[in-house]
Each structure stands twice: as structure tokens, then as C-alpha cells.
Amino acid sequence: GFSSKPYLDAVNIPTIGWGSTYYPDGKKVTIQDKEITEQKACEILEYIANKDFGSFVNKAVKVKLNQNQFDALVSFAYNLGNGNLQQSTLLKKVNNNDFIGASLEFEKWNKAGGKVLNGLTKRRTAEKELFLS
Predict the structure, then answer these.
(1) CB 3.0 to 4.6 Å from 127: which of 4, 25, 72, 91, for a disulfide?
(2) Interior CA angle at 10 toward 4 and 12, to 5°?
């Protein structure tokens, strides 16, 4: 969800807007940062999702994806980081054209700080459904 004010996420990382932990200029979000508008949060999300995560997915994936599969992987990377996607069985299965097997991997990534979080379970389910559509 959207937050105009900085907050600490489930693992105590300062976050703002639609889950951004840094700004397009590379500056990390801090709890002392000023409130932002929803429009500004959307601009940050679009920039970071395209530049940092969309470009990574384009490089990491070696097979043809449909737009929904691409979007699900960008969402996954945005939430968990490019490094986690890079090392994941999810990416390996995607690159082996095992899209059904890959879809089953999303739900395994529903923990933060070692605890299952309802919000992450919902997010992973949504990403899986998007990936399969």
C-alpha cells in the first residue's frame, strides 16, 4: 500500500511511497524524510521499477516472456531485490521454460525476518496469478 510518510518495513528498513527504500537519485529513505504525494510516489516507483528492476529482469531472463510474466518478475525483484531473484530457483525454472514450476516458487518467498507475513503471502499469490495469466 501507499504511505506518504516514511515508515519501517517488516525488517526495519526505512520505506516510503509504494515500498521504495531509496529515491531515483540513489539516496536512501530515512525516517526523517519529508512526506511525499501519491503522484511523487508513483514517479519514484515507475523510475526505479523500470531502471533498476525491469532492466535487470531483461538481462537475467534468457527466454521469451509475456508482459504479465515480466511484470510479475519485476514486482518480485522490486520487493526482494535483484540478488534474490538472480539466485532463485524461480529464475532458474523460468530460464528452463518451466513456467508452471516457476510459478510454484513465488509462494516460497513469503517471509521477512524469518516470519511468514500475511501481506507477503498475498503479494506472492498475486504475482503468481499474474505470472500465469
Answers:
(1) 72
(2) 80
* Residues in Cβ contact with 131 at an 8 Å cutoff, skipping those fewer than 6 apart: 68, 69, 72, 73, 99, 102, 103, 106
**Considering the entire predicted model, what is its pTM?**
0.91
Query: What is the Cα 49 distance to its own chain's centre?
Result: 8
**Tens of pLDDT along 77-119?**
999 999 999 999 999 999 999 999 999 999 999 999 899 999 9
DSSP states along 38-105: HHHHHHHHHHHIIIIIIHHHHHH--S---HHHHHHHHHHHHHH-HHHHHT-HHHHHHHTT-HHHHHHH
Q: For residue 54, give the nearest of 77, 85, 34 by alpha carbon.
A: 77
Q: In angstroms, rounded to a whole number, what is the distance separating the alpha carbons of residues 9 and 37?
A: 19
Give the three-class secondary structure for 132. Answer: helix
d(CA 69, CA 75): 10
d(CA 14, CA 31): 6
